Structure formats: C-alpha cells, structure tokens
Amino acid sequence: MKQLIKIGKNHKWIFFLGIGFTILLSVSRSFIPKSIEYVFDTLLGEDVPNLPVCAIDLVYADDFKTHLAGVAIGLALFSLLRAAFMVVNSVAKAHFSENIARDLRNKMYSHLQNLSYTYHNNADTGDLIQRSTTDIDTIRMFFQNHVFNIFWIAGLAVSVIYQMVKIDLFLTIISLIVLPVTVGISIFYFKKIEKIFTEVEESESRLTTTVQENLNGVRVVKAFSNEQYEIDKFVEKNNEYKEKSLRMYYKMANYWSTSDLITFTQYCLTLVIGSYYAINGNISTGQLIAFIMFVQIIVWPIRNLGRIVAEYSKTTVSIARLNTIFDVEDEYVDNGTDKRKIDGKIEFKNVTFKFDDSSENLLDNLSLTINPGETIALIGKTGSGKSTLIKLLIRLLDYQSGSIEIDGVPIAQYNKKYLRSNIGVILQEPFLYSKTVQENIGIT
Ligand SMILES: Nc1ncnc2c1ncn2[C@@H]1O[C@H](COP(=O)(O)OP(=O)(O)OP(=O)(O)O)[C@@H](O)[C@H]1O
Ligand SMILES: [Mg+2]
User: Fold this and answer.
1) CATH class (in words) of the domain with range 2-332
2) Which residues line ligand 1 (CB under 6 A)?
3) Which of 27, 79, 175, 286 sits CB 3.0–4.6 Å from 159 for a disulfide?
4) Are 397 and 118 in contact (CB under 8 A)?
5) CB within 8 Å of 358: residues ≥ 6 apart
6) Which residues of the chain, if any, have pLDDT below 70?
7) Domain ranges of the chain
8) CATH numeric code, 335-441
9) For 30, phi and psi rounded to 5 degrees?
C-alpha cells in the first residue's frame, strides 16, 4: 500500500477532482426525487412546499401548466448539469487510474529488466506476465471504480437518509432495517466469490504458461511430433479454466438473486407501510413516491458494498503478488564502480562454483590465464561447464570461492554494465527479436 500511495501522490490533484465530483454527483442525486415529489403534490393539490423556496420562486407561475413546465425545464437543466459533472468525474477517474496503472507497469518492467539472470532462469515466465498485466489491471480497476464508489456510497447515504428522515423517521427505520442484512450477505458472498476468483486467476496463469511454453518450444514439439500431447494438455487446462469461471458465475447468480429477493421484500414493506401512512395523511402522496425512490437509490450501492470489500481484498492479493517481485533485490545492488580501460588479460584463480540446487561443484579450483590478443578454445564434453565459465566472466552468475580478474582487477570491482559492454558474447541458444535482421544484428 505504501508503494501505491507513493505512486498515487504524483496524481493527487486529479484524485481530489474525482472525489469532489463524485460527492457532488451523489449528493445532487437526492434532489431528483424531491422535484418529483413536488410535481405530484402540486398535481394532487397537496400543497406542501417541499422544494427550497428559492427554487420554487424561480419556476413559479400563476398558471398551473406554466408552473409545471417551469419545474420540468428546471429538472432538465439540472440533469444536464449533472451529466456535465459526470463527464468530468469519469474523465478524472480514468486519468487517475490509468496513470497509476502506467506507472506501475513501467516500474514493474524496469524492475524485471534489472533482476538477476538466476532469478529469470528460475522464474515462471507465464506467471510474471500474468502479474505484470492482470494483477496491475485489478489494481487499476480498484482505483478507477471502487475507491470512488466508497465516496459515492457515503455521499448518497448521508444525503438520502437525511431527506428520508425529513419525511418520516419511523418509515426511514422500517425501510432501512434490512440494510445490515443486505450488507452482511453481500460481504459473505463476495468473500466466497473472491476466493474462487483467485483460483480463476491462477488457472488463467497456468493457461498462459502453457501457451507460452508451447510457442517457445515449438521446435521440440514438432521434432517429436508431440502436437496431440500438447493439444490435450491445453484442452485440459482450458477446461479447468472454464469450470472455475463457471463456478464463479454460479456464485454470482446466487448472490444477485438472493439479494434481489431481499431488496424487493424491502420495497414491498416500504410500499405497504408508506401507503398506510399516506392514506392516514401522515405523509403526502408525493412524499411516498419520493420515499420509494430514495429506497431504490440507496439500496443499489449498498448491495455493491460487499463487492467493494471483495475487490479490496482481491486488490491486496494483487498488490502482494506484485510485491513478491518488487521485493527481490535487483542485481545492481551488488555492483562495482571501476570503469578503467580494459586491455583484456583474463585470469581464473582457483575458481570454485556450484549451482544452488546442486550438491556438487561444477567448477572445482579452476585456474587459467588468457593474455590479451590470445585466441583460446575451450573444449569439453557436454555439461562440463564451458558456458558456465563465460556466464561467470560476465557476472551472470557469481562464483563461491577463488577469483576471476581482468587486468589484475577482480571482476566484482568493475561496474557490471561496463564490464558486460566490454565483452562480446555469442550465446549458445540463439534468440531473435521480432524485428528486422539488421536490427537483430545491431543489438549492442
Ligand atoms: N541454472 C542452472 N541450475 C542448475 N544447473 C544448471 C543450470 N544451468 C546449467 N546447469 C548445469 O550445469 C552444467 C554445466 O552447464 P553448461 O551449460 O556450462 O555446460 P556446457 O559445458 O556449456 O555444455 P554444452 O557443451 O552442452 O554447451 C550442466 O550439467 C547443466 O545441467
Ligand atoms: Mg555450452
């Protein structure tokens, strides 16, 4: 979260703009039922001044029809203003979240560039891709919608409940009594959905890895005519992904129907008791209509509250998944500073090296000297460590004991990038970028 706040700080003005307009929109939402209430009460002759007097004065006309037309035009202008606010609000939200996502992607990509050879050797590429795309997108969505939704709900709750209480306190309590249940159910369901969602995401990551490995190793697949095996493997992973996604949608269907049932029971209750109130003259017809509208306005976002909670924990999972990468120190933490001119005398002095996951030394007390200008060929059976020797020389790998020196200076003292830019390496496994031949050759 600290990281995100740091990134978010660079875009704080657009954030506050978004929040400001969100609150403006949510509070102004409660004015619409008020005007409807006014229209109905005026129509039915139940003359209750339920709009601010200044607003009534503005549209007042002696003639009844002209008066109502004034209200209608007022309402239309008001809606137009809200539409303009909505545009600003959406643009601010999109800018804020897209900026955060872009910064995160850039940060992740640069970080990946600087991670060590050993890290990349052991990392699951599909998973890294998944984290740099889907996880960042989850974070983006959270910032685009749910962060602002919290303010939206808060603004609505305060303004709508205030208006409802102004009509009738008891009726307000009756209409909102089921809300805690709705919130509870919403949180309960979305927690469950979120768990399945993580599974869906993991399953998607396995699918990506399968495709990626298959495309990378397509020569092996062809050479061993393993196509059918690869297809079967993919179909299995693809089915698993579909099953997991379906489970998620089933749970969602359960949630929306249960929550719908509760919400409509709620409406019925409000309608019955409200009508009773209206018949008895405790409230006007317009007020009853406004009241029903208020309940409708407030219930929808509340049903989504669980979603925000779930999205929040989903986002924290995504942030944690990104952090496991950000927490890996980049290889330049351990870097020398020397940038002296290199003549090219290479010395290996009693170098011992073993891979972390192996119990035996691959190179054991190896010593050798190569003078500038000399041409040397290393010959050895496969797996004897020839390529490893070169990886040690350019510090893709670090040895355990002994020392490797260039012009009498241990290679650890050289600046890594400087050292590597002074050594030309043609790798055993060729790799071509999707660029022109010229560009591929031109890579320095
Ligand atoms: N990342 C790694 N982790 C563990 N062991 C590894 C790793 N990379 C290579 N090895 C092992 O280290 C040994 C030496 O590998 P290296 O690539 O240096 O051999 P080589 O002499 O270049 O072989 P070749 O003639 O086939 O190119 C091999 O047994 C290989 O399996
Ligand atoms: Mg080799």
Assistant:
1) mainly alpha
2) 121, 355, 357-358, 362, 380, 382-388, 428
3) 27
4) yes
5) none
6) 47-61, 444
7) 2-332, 335-441
8) 3.40.50.300
9) -75, -10
Count CB-CB contacts under 10 A for residue 2. 7
User: What's the CA-to-centroid distance between 431 and ligand 1, angstroms?
Assistant: 18
- pLDDT tens-digit map of 54-67: 666 666 667 777 87
Pick the ligand that lies closest to the CA of residue 120: 1
Q: Whole-model pTM above 0.85?
A: no
Q: Give me the sheet containing 409-410, strands edge to edge.
A: 363-370, 346-353, 401-406, 409-410
Supply the residue whose CA is at minimum distance from atom 29 of ligand 1.
Answer: 383
Distance 388 CA to ligand 1 centre (A): 6
390 vs 405: CA distance, rounded Å: 13
Rounded Cα distance between 274 and 267, Å, is 10
Residue 412 Cα to ligand 1 middle (Å): 22
Q: If you average pLDDT over every residue of the chain, what do you get?
A: 89
- Among 78, 29, 68, 73, smallest CA distance to 45 is for 68
Other C-beta atoms closer than 10 Å to the C-beta of 129 total 14
